[in-house]
Every structure is written in C-alpha cells, then in structure tokens.
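User: quick one, fold this
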Amino acid sequence: EVLNVNLKGAFFLTRTVANQLLKDKKSGSLINISSQMGIVGGLERSVYCASKHAVEGFTKAMAIELAPFNVRVNSLAPVAGETPLLKSFLGEDTPERRNAFLSTIPIGRFSTPKDLGNAACFLCSDEASMITGSILEVDGGRCI
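Assistant:
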C-alpha cells in the first residue's frame, strides 16, 4: 500500500500532467513530495524510505526527460509535520516522543503546511526557472 500511494501515485500523476503539458505545448513546473527519510532513511521505515527514495529518482529522471520541453520537475523533502499524520509517524503523540524527534531537527520545530506551500511557490516561480531535478529539503536542517 505504501508503494502504491507514495510511488505509483507520484508516477501516474506526474506522467498524466506532463503528457497534458506536452500535448498542449505548454511549459510548467511539476513538484513531487518526497521526504527527508528518502534522503537519510529511518529506523523501522524501510518500505516508506524506499518509496520516497524512488520518488526522488523518478523526479530526477523526469527532469531530464522533460527539460527539452521547458517543463521542470522537482521534489520537496519535508521533515515530519504538524499534521494529522504526525501521531502515526511518532507511534504515539506524547511530549516525550515529540521532544525526542524535535531534538533531531536543528531549527527545533516540525514543518507546517505553510512551509511546504512556500517552498512549492518558490519552485513554481520564475525565480526558480533554472532549477530542475532538485530535491528541496524542507527539514529544518535535519538532513545536514
């Protein structure tokens, strides 16, 4: 199920949008969602990490394939965030577990949907017109 959602979902959505852009002869910016765990891995999360690492490889391959058509493809790699999924990520949402995980993030906080939205807006902007095939770590320094 993890591979179906994380990898196949990104694959089918990216290919569908890319095909439509190519058909319409339009440029664009596609953004996949990876995870900092696709970069550094994580204990007892091998399938999740593999799925996110695969999204990063897929992002880079699609960036090369679509660059001649002025379509950029990048990925965001967030750290765990203040969302309803945090509880399942931590196993149990207790102050001790939160603090233990927060101690691994140099900025000292979880990501927020706004953090990801701001990063996505940048990648879609003209200011990022030379950026393709990149994995933007929105992780408060956790992958350093």
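User: anything notable?
Assistant: Residues 2-23 form the longest helix (22 residues).
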